[in-house]
Amino acid sequence: MSDATELAHETHTGLTTRQKENLWRGIIFGVLALLGVIFFVPFYWMIVQATHTSKEILRLPPPLWFGDKALLNYDGLLATIPFWRNYLNSVIISAGTVVLTLIICSMSGYAFALLRFPAKNLLFGILLMTMMIPWVVSIIPWYIIMARFGWIDTYQAIILPAGVNGFGVFWMRQYITSHVPTDLLDSARIDGCPEATIFPRVVAPIITPAYGALAILAFVNSWNNFFFPLIMLRSKNMFTLPVALNFLNGDPYRGMDFGVTMMGTSLAVLPVMIVFWFASRRFIEGLTAGAVKG
Question: What per-residue confidence (pLDDT) applies to 205?
Answer without folding.
Answer: 87
